[in-house]
Design brief:
By secondary structure, this protein is mainly beta. It contains 1 helix and 10 strands; from the N terminus they run αββββββββββ.
Length: 202
């Protein structure tokens, strides 16, 4: 028997596949194609119905906090951003673990107290100094994170986080755990973090 392998979809999609009626809800080909396209290509654009609900996060450094092994150096314009919504980013200094001098395990917290009760999609794009064993993992206090997924591109990662804010009771924080390795620790290690999203799920 041949071994199974992942399919590299690249820019292609599945077409002309007719599923039995009792399977269409369970495995919708159009939904699979749409999800692949969303993760690879889509940027949430401002409009009457879909606007960047997280824009305030990149307007004031007080809305973020240095939690562990990380310093927020400021909020800057970031022309390298592929976004059309917001070209602002968090400029971060990464601090290394004492027992692993070439690894950073940094945590950054975001105050989302100003968001109203509801479902949200939060998008995080992380541009680290080096793309070695990079991962982004969300955690929360009283926020319910029910799904997240990350795709790695050549120079950055994109993470989609779906969560539900149940109430307005504080504290209301989402934390991002940033992990990675670097070859040369003799220079200041910095990275660019972009946050945007909307009040619904995509």
């Amino acid at each position: 028997m041949d071994k199974a392998a992942d399919i590299d979809m690249k820019n292609y999609s599945i077409t002309n596949l007719d599923l039995p009626s009792n399977q269409r809800d369970a495995a919708c080909v159009e939904f699979v194609n749409y999800s692949i396209k969303q993760l690879n290509e889509t940027h949430i654009s401002s409009s009457v119905n879909k606007k960047d609900a997280f824009r305030y996060l990149t307007e004031d450094t007080d809305e973020s906090s240095s939690e562990n092994n990380i310093d927020v150096l400021g909020i800057n314009d970031f022309p390298e951003s592929p976004l059309q919504v917001n070209k602002k980013d968090y400029f971060l200094k990464l601090l290394f673990e004492k027992d692993s001098p070439n690894q950073y395990r940094s945590r950054l917290g975001f105050n989302i107290q100003t968001l109203s009760v509801g479902y949200y999609t939060m998008v995080v794009e992380w541009f680290p100094t080096e793309m070695n064993e990079v991962s982004v993992t969300p955690q929360a206090t009283t926020i319910s994170i029910f799904n997240y997924t990350t795709k790695t591109f050549e120079k950055y990662t994109k993470t989609l986080i779906h969560f539900h804010r149940w109430s307005s009771s504080p504290p209301q924080y989402i934390f991002l755990d940033l992990h990675g390795t670097v070859r040369d620790t003799s220079f200041l290690k910095v990275g660019h973090l972009i946050v945007y999203g909307l009040k619904e799920t995509v």
